[in-house]
Specification:
Blueprint lengths: L1 E14 L2 E6 L2 E7 L6 H13 L3 E2 L5 E3 L1 H4 L2 E6 L21 H19 L3 E3 L7 E15 L5
Parallel strand pairs: 3-6, 6-7
Antiparallel strand pairs: 1-2, 1-3, 1-8, 4-5
GO molecular function, one term: D-tyrosyl-tRNA(Tyr) deacylase activity
Family: Belongs to the DTD family.
Protein name: D-aminoacyl-tRNA deacylase
Length: 150
């Protein structure tokens, strides 16, 4: 399971020109799910995300977590995070989980993130063509892969 986390001052998802989800200060999380992912990956990532200290304290140092600032989260499914570009110029998405695996994992991730953080969690729409708008604060962008825990 892979995530790209962007610290944002605002973010939204629109489908066919209509905003379906939006947040203010917090994280936009792009979530890529692969075939081998499990509940263990979900639990580990949600814990890591909730404790990630990338928000500024009174001195300007990145010492605060999403929990400390009581921020918001927006989770968007992003199968292209598992693109392989080793051969040729057209990415292969063979490692990305098929919808029958990815949808339950996506929903479990969102549920676990809600339980772990007790914060407002918004979502994109799985499989939809979405327009993501964001103001990256910093910019701060973090990539985490649950297969690289050490």
């Amino acid at each position: 399971m892979r995530v790209v986390i962007q610290r944002v001052s605002e973010a939204s998802v629109a489908i066919e020109g209509k905003i379906t989800s939006e947040i203010k200060t917090g994280f936009l999380i792009l979530l890529g799910i692969e075939h081998e992912d499990s509940q263990e990956d979900i639990n580990w990532l949600c814990g890591k995300i909730s404790r990630l200290r990338v928000f500024s304290d009174d001195t300007g140092a990145m010492n605060l977590s999403i929990l400390d600032i009581k921020g918001e989260l927006l989770v968007v499914s992003q199968f292209t995070l598992h693109a392989s570009t080793k051969k040729g110029n057209r990415p292969s998405f063979i490692k990305a989980a098929r919808p029958e695996v990815a949808i339950p994992h996506y929903e479990a991730f969102v549920d676990q993130l809600k339980r772990t953080t007790q914060l407002r969690v918004q979502t994109g729409t799985f499989g939809a063509m979405m327009e993501i708008a964001l103001v990256n604060d910093g910019p701060v962008t973090i990539f985490i892969d649950s297969k690289n825990k050490e």
